[in-house]
Amino acid sequence: MLSLISYEALASAALLAVGGIAYTAIYRLYLDPLAMIPGPKLAALTFYYEIYFNVVKPGMFVWEIKRLHEVYGMLYRPTDPSGISNLHVGPIVRINPREVHISDLSFLDQIYSTSSPRNKDEYATSTLDMKLSLGGTCQHETHKGRRAALTPFLSKMGVAKLEPFVVEKVGQFCRLLEDCKTQGVAVNLSDAYFAFSQDIVKQYGFGYDENLLGDTKRAAAARKNLNAFMLKTHFNVHFGWMNLPLVLLPQKAIKAFIPGLDEFMQFQKVRSPS
User: Fold this and answer.
1) CA–CA gap between residue 135 and residue 183 (Å, rounded)
2) Radius of gyration of the CA atoms of the chain, in A
3) pLDDT tens, position by position, for the chain (274 residues)?
4) Is 109 buried (19+), middle (13-18) or exposed (0-12) by CB count in 10 A?
5) Nearest partner of 31 among 42, 14, 44, judged by Cα
6) In three state form, how does the secondary structure of the chain look?
């Protein structure tokens, strides 16, 4: 009797799951307000189209979007007073079940309108799981208030206060180049400029000098870790729910399996004055 009930429950659950999937597919392809926008049916049906080009082929989705514009465009039929519809090709394509992409510079003023501001998409801002940060704030009014709090730091006077430190770092950068020249050692400019910018930004934003310019090996490792971490942000966009279990892992495990993430998690913490 128990096994019969279990079988019926499983069958009912499977039927509901299949029905839910079928309804979602039909809605996305034919009933959704975005159904009229041209684009690949697979992209309209599932996010896995985007996931493939962002996760399996990291960072390639932007080029796929460019290709979609070339293939599909936007079939636009404005109706004139006589009731005749004209066929035009426009710059809009559907790139996933809930988004369209517009490739038209003349549309920028409408998208980034100051008179009719828009909230950010929570789906996109969930990447780094920092809802209280300026970049992770979705509501326009809240974002406006938080941005206003930073205005004094980004003013001309505020930045001018950092000038002595910037000059000091420029001198240190030049000495690094001179030392490498004297020793006949090649210098990786990507690592050097990364160290230079990191030292300045962290001093200005967090009040401490990491002095990556003083250790080129550490600068190279930090840049490599950051690049590896940034590639994984595409994964986080679609699987943001994994942020919570990752936080619970020991730091050594995170450092071993996900290079760069441990540094970012340390970066998220408030640094207490030494």
Assistant:
1) 43
2) 26
3) 445 557 777 777 888 888 888 999 999 999 999 998 989 999 999 999 999 998 888 889 999 998 998 888 755 555 545 444 444 456 889 999 999 998 888 888 888 877 788 888 877 777 666 777 777 788 888 888 888 888 888 888 888 888 999 999 999 999 999 999 999 999 999 999 999 999 999 898 888 888 999 998 999 988 988 887 777 777 777 777 776 676 677 767 666 666 666 666 665 554 444 4
4) exposed
5) 44
6) CHHHHHHHHHHHHHHHHHHHHHHHHHHHHHHCHHHHCCCCHHHHHCCHHHHHHHHHCCCCHHHHHHHHHHHCCEEECCECCCCCECCEEECEEEEECCEEEECCHHHHHHHCCCCCCCCCCHHHHCCCCCCCCCCCCCCHHHHHHHHHHHHHHHCHHHHHCCHHHHHHHHHHHHHHHHHHHHHCCCCCHHHHHHHHHHHHHHHHHHCCCCCHHHCHHHHHHHHHHHHHHHHCHHHHHHCHHHHHHHHHCCHHHHHHHCCCHHHHHHHHCCCCCC
Q: How long is the chain?
A: 274
**CA separation (Å) from 253 to 172, 257, 258, 265, 267?**
35, 6, 8, 13, 17
Tokens 């940034």 sit at which residue?
Answer: 230
Give Cα separations from 206 to 185, 267, 270 (angstroms): 33, 10, 9
